[in-house]
What does this fold into?
Amino acid sequence: MGYHRAGFEVTGVDHVAQPRYPFAHAVADVLTLTPGYLRGFDLVHASPPCQAHSLGSQRWIAAGRSYPDLIAATRELLEAAGVSWVLENVPRAPVRADVVLRGEMFGLKVCRQRHFELGGWWCMAPALPLRGSVKRGDFVTCAGHGGHGSNSLAVWRKAIGIDWMSKQETAEAIPPCYTEHLGREFLAQQRRAAA
It folds into this structure.
């Protein structure tokens, strides 16, 4: 949604059908896509599963559960395509933190810090205002089952700026304002380069 708001025509790809996804999308394993297919896009954004690196998953990993770590394979595909790209994940993931975005940078009631590794372009983050806490009620936890009274879907949707997803989808999403910021910065660079 953020890239759409920034001015992109969006095509999504996921390994499962996403009936509430508001744009054209294909059901496919991203890692089966060819570099040639990716070259048909101006910018490719990839968000591999985060559970292998998420702080919230560590207790499950310690109990023997395993999660796929697709970051290296995804990066390899993006680099092979030779297009501008974004690789997003959680703070503990092995991605370069070229840009770090948090909800409070955009006035959201969710922290949802995410790291963005960029290929073929650069971007700056907005200033980070004074921080608050979930316990004090400054922010909402939109992950797992929520926390500190923030477990309703209505509260999550308002906090993260998404009103079309299920609770599980919202728990795994990044706020659209993050990708809107990235998309606007990318397009501005393209315009400057063409001038």
Q: What stands out?
A: The mean pLDDT is 88. The radius of gyration is 17 Å. The first helix runs from residue 2 to 6. The first strand starts at residue 11 and ends at 14.
